[in-house]
Amino acid sequence: APLIGVVALQGGVREHREALESLGARTRRVTLPSHLDGLDGVVLPGGESTSMVRLAAASGLFPALEQRIRDGLPVFGTCAGLILLTRTVLDAEALAEHPRVPVLDMAVRRNAYGGQLASFVAPIVVTGESTPVEAVFIRAPQVEQVGHAVEVLAEHGGRPVLIRQGIVMAATFHPELTPDTRVHAMFLALVGLRDDGLRDVGLTNAVE
Ligand code: GLN
């Protein structure tokens, strides 16, 4: 079974581990760079992106994770995790002081739907799935721009909410908060593809 690390600084860690384990994966909490050794994939949960960059800064976890991803480690970021993985974060003052994991060729806006009360649930149509997925949006970011290497797997209100760029998947919603495990299964399929010899990590090295 694949071993998936779940970055456990803050946010929805237990729910991601339960979803992955229900699909047959093994999981490990990741708080330090050494915890990345031997993983087949990594999940960056939602929570609060500003807290996460602060908590990760001392150990150098995020630069270490970025290097692993560029070397071929698949990663799945949800909500705040998507923000951490995106190259261009608009209104990024609060994030600018500490390293993130900027591998996705996209631009994203934090808290774009408004405050806590703007959280909502909506059905979304996901590429390859015959029935909609109920997507839970909590102070979600909005993807404002995507590069040509970004494949949009689902949209809501005309904006991408689930994307893939090479070995990186990201969602603006919280698939770990519903019993439906299809989105996690998509990530495990990507991890499996990597094991089967997918060579192109699908990431660019463009300078910000
Ligand atoms: N608003 C949060 C942030 O900017 C993300 C919300 C979430 O992960 N549910 O980090």
Structure description:
The protein is an alpha/beta fold and 208 residues long. The chain has one domain (3-195): 3-Layer(aba) Sandwich (Rossmann fold). It is 24% helix and 29% strand. The protein has five helices and twelve strands. It has helices at 13-22, 49-57, 61-70, 80-85, 182-195, and strands spanning 3-7, 26-30, 41-44, 75-78, 86-90, 104-109, 120-124, 133-137, 142-146, 151-156, 159-165, 168-171. The strands form three sheets. It has a seven-stranded mixed β-sheet. A hairpin with a 2-residue loop joins strand 11 (159-165) and strand 12 (168-171). The longest helix has 14 residues, at 182-195. It starts with a strand and ends in a 13-residue tail after the last helix. The mean pLDDT is 94. It binds glutamine. Glutamine is lined by residues 46-49, 79-80, 83, 110-111, 138-139.
Q: What overall form do the CA principal axes indicate?
A: globular
Q: What is the distance, rounded to the nearest whole angstrom, between the alpha carbons of the first and last residues?
A: 37 Å
CATH topology-level fold name: Rossmann fold
Mean pLDDT: 94
Strand tally is: 12
Label the structural class: alpha/beta
Radius of gyration: 15 Å
Task: Work out the helicity level.
Answer: 10-25%
In which order are the strands of the major sheet placed? 2-1-3-4-12-11-10
Low-confidence stretches: none
CATH top level is: Alpha Beta
According to CATH, the homologous superfamily is Class I glutamine amidotransferase (GATase) domain
Second CATH tier, the architecture: 3-Layer(aba) Sandwich
β content, as a range? 25-35%
Order of helices and strands: EHEEHHEHEEEEEEEEH
Small-molecule binders here are: glutamine
Q: In the residues, how many domains can be counted?
A: 1
Subunit structure: In the presence of PdxS, forms a dodecamer of heterodimers. Only shows activity in the heterodimer.
Keywords: Glutamine amidotransferase, Hydrolase, Lyase, Pyridoxal phosphate
Active site: 79 (nucleophile), 174 (charge relay system), 176 (charge relay system)
Protein name: Pyridoxal 5'-phosphate synthase subunit PdxT
